[in-house]
């Protein structure tokens, strides 16, 4: 293994999948440094404890989805300390509403797009010079099978109109980044059903009963699978594809 650290930036890192990935990396990878993005770093107690447990391996930075200047500030911090970033993992996401197209308020769609689409666009643009400085750059936003136009979820009565619209748009963004930048590994990754606060709120809002039947995996198990995919992914094998947490390809 190379003695050179692998530099990660993970947004949405204070809880759920994001924090599970941070914890997994710090506990198992001796040559890693993680920039963990959180809306309020001071209140991100789990990250603060991780920083005490793994000194010199993590920096907690303030991240707000879609904040252009804030994302540029994060990039400056990374530039000053490491001059590059090897992996950008976008776990920050919004899933605050369930309802069919007929009932979905436009402002709800705007909110979902701000976090799930524009947030990833802004962080990609801010991290672009740092990614170019990496020998093996990877930009991987978390999507959802709900964003597929052809997979089985499209016909389910889940009312995920706003969420699915934003994830489909995110898939387009990731695919465009792949085709426009031949030097990077980029693809949307679906983590599947995971025991998170968002999943719990979706179950509460779901009137169809479908979500109650889904078997959810723990964030820790998801993180193990996710880190393996990121470690082993290549542009030739995965670039521009829609990848499931088991490594298979999802139809667009």
From TrEMBL:
Pfam families: adh_short (PF00106). One of its GO terms (molecular function) is oxidoreductase activity. Keywords: NADP, Oxidoreductase. It comes from the Eukaryota. The keyword NADP applies. InterPro entries: Fungal_SecMetab_SDRs (IPR051468), NAD(P)-bd_dom_sf (IPR036291), SDR_fam (IPR002347). GO terms for cellular component: cytoplasm. Belongs to the short-chain dehydrogenases/reductases (SDR) family. PANTHER family: NADB-LER2, SHORT-CHAIN DEHYDROGENASE/REDUCTASE. This is NAD(P)-binding protein. The lineage of its organism: Eukaryota, Fungi, Dikarya, Basidiomycota, Agaricomycotina.
């Amino acid at each position: 293994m190379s003695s050179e650290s692998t530099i990660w930036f993970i947004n949405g890192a204070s809880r759920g999948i994001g924090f599970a990935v941070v914890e997994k990396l710090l506990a198992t990878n001796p040559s890693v440094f993680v920039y963990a993005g959180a809306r309020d770093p001071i209140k991100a107690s789990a990250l603060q404890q991780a920083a005490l447990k793994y000194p010199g391996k993590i920096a907690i930075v303030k991240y707000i989805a879609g904040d252009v200047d804030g994302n540029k500030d994060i990039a400056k911090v990374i530039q000053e300390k490491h001059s590059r970033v090897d992996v950008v993992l976008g776990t920050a996401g919004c899933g605050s509403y369930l309802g069919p197209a007929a009932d979905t308020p436009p402002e709800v769609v705007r909110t979902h797009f701000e976090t799930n689409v524009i947030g990833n666009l802004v962080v990609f643009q801010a991290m672009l010079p740092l990614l170019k400085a990496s020998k093996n750059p990877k930009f991987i936003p978390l999507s959802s099978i709900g964003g597929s136009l052809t997979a089985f979820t499209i016909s389910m009565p889940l009312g995920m109109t706003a969420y699915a619209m934003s994830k489909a748009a995110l898939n387009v963004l990731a695919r465009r980044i792949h085709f426009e930048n031949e030097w990077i590994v980029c693809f949307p990754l679906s983590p599947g059903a995971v025991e998170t606060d968002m999943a719990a709120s979706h179950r509460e809002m779901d009137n169809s009963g479908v979500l109650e039947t889904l078997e959810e995996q723990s964030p820790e198990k998801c993180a193990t699978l996710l880190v393996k995919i990121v470690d082993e992914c290549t542009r030739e094998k995965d670039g521009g594809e829609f990848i499931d947490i088991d490594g298979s390809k999802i139809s667009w």
